[in-house]
Design a protein that fits this description.
single chain, mainly alpha, AhpD-like, 2 domains, 8 helices
Amino acid sequence: MSNPENDTRAADQRRFKLIPLDQLTPEQQALSDAIKSGPRAKLKSSGASKPGPLGGPFNVWLRSPGIGDLVQKLGEEIRFRSSLAGKLNELAILITARHWTSQYEWVAHHKLALEGGLDPAIAEAISQGRPPQNMDADETVVYEFSSELQRTQAVSDATYNRALDRFGERGVVDLISVNGFYVLVSMCLNVDRTPVPAGTPLPLPPLVK
């Protein structure tokens, strides 16, 4: 993925160009209507709440409306009906965005994480690829589980059991799901080269490996 440090991602760098509303097929229109009438539309920071063509990952999903509808419904379940507290869900999303250096995903969810009560210092450490300090017990479990899963594609018995003790089996499945879903979102955004809002500096520096 191209990642120039001072690039604000002009819209013409998208691979999937925005589709004007009057050029949507009936299937695309149905998907657009479903997204714009769902719970995402109540969030001011969501592309679903803005007039005009759908942006973000929604613009990518319009290309395959059947898959797009299933994906957006899964995302709605993960975002709005998870057993995990909103702050913890958003923490897992930020960890995924950092692992994939998904600039748009980070911008979209950083504000939501802070609004949900995440300490800005925790988010800043994650953005820089550093282990955060002063996390509470639940944040620590989510951070360790998500980071290990993203890094090694598995979790140890110790990490699994800590998550199970804190959140139960449903919570573990919800935590796996939010990590996995936002990997898919990151892939769509990175392949598209979805731009961050005009004038917004890229928040995630390249990680030294």
